[in-house]
Amino acid sequence: MPSEAILAAFADELARNVGAYSELSPILGVQLDGTIDLGGGISLEAEPDEIIDSLAHRIPLQRLPVATGTSVLRQRYTVRPAFEFRGGEAIRESVTMPALAAREEVRQRVRLACLLASVGPVELPFLLLQPDPKSLFVAGKGNQASRTFGAMPLVAFPVAGANVARAYHGLVGFKGDASLARAIDRLGRSRLAASPVDRALDLGMAAEIVLMHDHSPANTEIAHKIGGRAAWLLGRDPDDRAAIFADMKALYQARSQAVHSGVLTKSKIDLDVADRLVTRAFNAILERGAFPDWTSLVMGGDALQTEEDPTS
């Protein structure tokens, strides 16, 4: 560049006095079918098919142990002011927008949405803070950070980005306490479990949290209540409700056996089928926008016909 152009660019960047950055979070366990714009500077970026674009997608992540096809959550944020002027202008404290806590909330919500749209575990354990490549005076490839996690998903399951976006926006607008998020988190943990016993424990807890959120742990006949609520929430006719009732009771009984004995010797439950059933219940509640009136529901009222399970 001519020296005059460099000086002009320097003056322009100082005048803006804004630092622009991206926070990249590889989504381990999910391979999206396309890039999704979630709004507000948030996007889920699939790895492109074209080899040059694919390499450009992966270059920032080369220091991270990620598999081919890994999708990335990108959150754009700014720091303002970016430069400190000494002299006539008073020194102001820089403000980051969105703040770190807000970006962490988005990251957790994206994980939950991916769990609802997928059949496998999902984790976002790494961060890469990347400066705007158009910035003239911020150099480097970015800073890496990570958080403690128990296990890493080894397989990236193909997932429809539209299903992730629908679940994400459903979580944003969901009215209620943190019960649903905690239950979906347990669903994710069950998919990383090292044994059928641990998987049954987490799946059973996920079902109990979301279907018994308005009762204390000391409530009696929980298995019967969970089965009945799931049956009326998901069932389309008496036979369908009876089957769901039996499957959900079997899951809770397996959970109880795992809690008290540490083994599943007497249980013949198919944990893959149980996983899909619990996921259906989560999506049906999310579709409503709030927890149902359980008393009305199990009496045959407040029925809602749900769409087919997006993970089937």
Descriptive keywords:
312 residues; alpha+beta; 10 helices; elongated; seven-stranded antiparallel beta sheet; 2 domains; two-stranded parallel ribbon; 46% helix
Strand residue percentage: 5-15%
Total beta strands: 9
**Count of separate structural domains:** 2
Structural class: alpha+beta
Backbone CA Rg: 24 Å
Report on the architecture of this protein:
By secondary structure, the chain is an alpha+beta fold. It has ten helices and nine strands. The protein has two domains: 17-84 and 93-146, no CATH class; 176-298. The strands form two sheets. Strands 1, 3, 4, 5, 6, 7 and 8 form a seven-stranded antiparallel beta sheet that branches. A hairpin with a 2-residue loop joins strand 3 and strand 4. Helix 5 (179-191) packs antiparallel against helix 9 and helix 8 (238-261) packs across helix 9. The longest helix is centred in the C-terminal third of the chain and has 24 residues, at 238-261. It is elongated and about 80 Å long. The N and C termini lie far apart (55 Å).
Short characterization:
The protein is of the alpha+beta class and 312 residues long. The chain has ten helices and nine strands.
